[in-house]
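User: Could you check the structure of this?
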Amino acid sequence: MSRQSSAPTPTAGLNSDLLLGPVSGTNTFEETVQRLLQTVRLGLIAPGARLPPERELAAKLRVSRDTLREAIGSLAEAGYLIAKRGRYGGTFVSEVLPMPRVNATEPLAGDLHPSITAAEIDDVLTLRDILEVGAARAAAGRLLSPPERELLWSSLGAAVNAGAGEYRRVDARLHLYIGELAGSPSLVPLLADVRMRVNELLDAIPLLAPNIAHSNQQHEQIVIAILTGRPDTAAEAMRDHLSGTALLLRGFLD
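Assistant: Sure, the predicted structure tokens are below.
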């Protein structure tokens, strides 16, 4: 029986370090997942080959080893990576990679639109950015009533305390309520439509616990900025939050 190679085996002509440069921005977990996914799915590290050692990989990406472990663990749960113990252990790319749900030729259970294209994903995410960043800015610029403030805070609490099975629902409710607080009745139906489209994409990727925790931190930043009347801060916090989701969607589905 042949022994597993101890070093990554790049696809001919491609550098396995091509996408493993420093992570930037505030969405370090999500971007780390995206970088690793791109590296694996583009074949820069071949199926069955081993990833660089954890210390080296964390240094290349300039992320903490805790963040890297969370990203690797999430991708292992999703079927892209395999952790092996022992003398020839390490983290290896799965021999058979999961089929990207939206590009699958045959629908899997639960798929609503298995033929969604990268252009359609970009369209949804661009529209979401335009609508939701503007909604957060507008909501923070209004003088909110005590009941509005209380409901916003309780909506945040519901998202923080939600279990995995109900998280998407309460997350959507929080985002839609922020849109309602913007003060434009015409905005809410638009947000609801784009949220339905986003949820169809989210349903096609794994629900990652570290991403949920990070999202809840970002939700709190958005809500506090709205409640303290800081439009620019609210808009920037919402933009960072949406960027993290976009990184995961593009990483798994593009």
